[in-house]
Amino acid sequence: MTHIFGHRGAAGTYPENTMVSFQAAEKFGADGIELDVQFTKDHQIVVIHDETVNRTTNGKGAVRNYLYEDLRALDASYTFYDKVGVQPIPLLEEVLEWLKTNNLFLNIEFKNNKVPYRGLEEEVITLIRKYSMEERTILSSFNHYSMKKCHMMAPDIETAILYKEGLHSPWAYAKKMGASAIHPNYRYISDGIAELTMENGVAVRPYTINDEEVMRKFLKMNVTAIITDYPERVKRIMQGVK
């Protein structure tokens, strides 16, 4: 059974990486949410995708140059202000607190491929353990060294290799890096490779699938999960598929 992961929550219809977006993904029937983490200047783990606040908030500048108190004052409602009003940038801990109220899976993407946030792996793993979320969490990153480090530190927490371009024998590479899943850009994984990867015991969760025809294709293949901005679309198709 293919799982549905809401990409940055329900980012197609709500402001990405905000509590209101994660709550919407749950309401739409997602099995899990995907979010992105970075450090503030005072080492708080915040949920935001870009290395700067420019695109998704009314502020300017790099996330790492903000104290959390100042970051919290920004409005992250993005283009959905009329629908949801002012939305703060959440702490990862806030999301974990909310996840205690449901059974959703959590995919945490480390945004450490451009900014080498030192100690981010340790801090995130500490929080996951604090909330006993080991069984429900998947860590992913385009920084594969970071994923190897996470696996060595916490072999009981699943890690996934994120990648944009084609990868030769991704199942072998994932295993070499201690990962038990791949999260490929859906455009760069052929049906054959996806199937072979799963046959070799490695989970396949392509991103970011928003087109209904593509959703249908991957659902027919029974991939491990679909990562989408529109979890409600996948849910609707799956109910039709049944």
UniProtKB/TrEMBL annotation:
InterPro entries: GP_PDE_dom, PLC-like_Pdiesterase_TIM-brl. Gene3D superfamilies: Phosphatidylinositol (PI) phosphodiesterase. Residues 2-238 form the GP-PDE domain. Pfam families: GDPD (PF03009). CDD domains: GDPD_TtGDE_like. This is Glycerophosphodiester phosphodiesterase.
